[in-house]
Amino acid sequence: MTLEELIEQGPKVKEKCISRGGMETISGEEYSTWLMKCSQKLLSDFPGKPLTNDFIERAKNANGNFSSEYDELMGILKSFEGIETNKTDLSIDCILSMVLNRFHKMARSIKNRHANRSTLLIKDEYDVQDLLQGILRLFVDDVRPEDNTPSNAGGNSRIDFHLPEYDMYIETKMTREGLTDRKIGEELLIDIGRYKNSCSTLVCFIYDPKEMLDNPYGLIKDLEKLSTEDLTVKVFVNP
């Protein structure tokens, strides 16, 4: 949703959630959701701006507050109209395709540093996550590592990255001895079941530096077929 659309939506939300009589206040789930979306939009498009920080702090206590607080928040939103954002024009799909399909090249390029200086060696999934997080932050402002998904059969599952602006989770895997195509598929199948009510897009990135997978294209096809109307599953295997 664009900033202009959020501004246009504001008066409609206010009208639904306002409580008249005496001092007018605005409260409700719809108002809270609108405030959250506005905060995320400003944080994504105008990170570090004083007015962005001001809006976010005010929005935390705005639900249930006087309508005059809404008017001031709306004024902040409108002050950003027409200002060029700090975001890249690339779509998130383009960014992910570029980053994940070239991940191995990046990992190889940092192995040999000048004067034998220390570097990040990709030995396991945690190393993959560290490097991937750094690259993603070049393009996406709000990258949240290791979030909790809703409990499933009494337990919580931790996902690697959450991109709230895109309602997207990213799960990473790195092949190793004993981690076969079938085993990875089974693990991701469980994850897909957990994520189906948590986001609209699940990206599965499988890093296979030693090309241990027998049939990566078959694995991609089988997992992406599990997409539903509510959850899109995208799978990348590299190299």
Features:
239 residues, alpha/beta, 3-stranded antiparallel β-sheet, 2 domains
Helix tally equals 9
The helix/strand class is alpha/beta
Spatial gap, N to C terminus = 34 Å
Domain count: 2
Question: How many β strands by DSSP?
Answer: 8
Pfam family, one: DpnII-MboI
Structure, described:
This protein is of the alpha/beta class. The protein has two domains: 3-80, no CATH class; 92-237, no CATH class. The protein contains nine helices and eight strands. It has helices spanning 3-17, 29-45, 50-60, 67-79, 92-100, 103-109, 125-136, 181-195, 216-224; strands at 18-19, 25-26, 65-66, 144-148, 158-163, 168-174, 201-207, 232-238. Strand 7 (201-207), helix 9 and strand 8 form a beta-alpha-beta unit. The radius of gyration is 22 Å and the shape is elongated.
Summarize the structure.
By secondary structure, the chain is α/β, with parallel strands linked by helices.
Q: How does the SSE layout of this entry go?
A:
Elements: H1 3-17, E1 18-19, E2 25-26, H2 29-45, H3 50-60, E3 65-66, H4 67-79, H5 92-100, H6 103-109, H7 125-136, E4 144-148, E5 158-163, E6 168-174, H8 181-195, E7 201-207, H9 216-224, E8 232-238
Parallel strand pairs: 6-7, 7-8
Antiparallel strand pairs: 1-2, 2-3, 4-5, 5-6
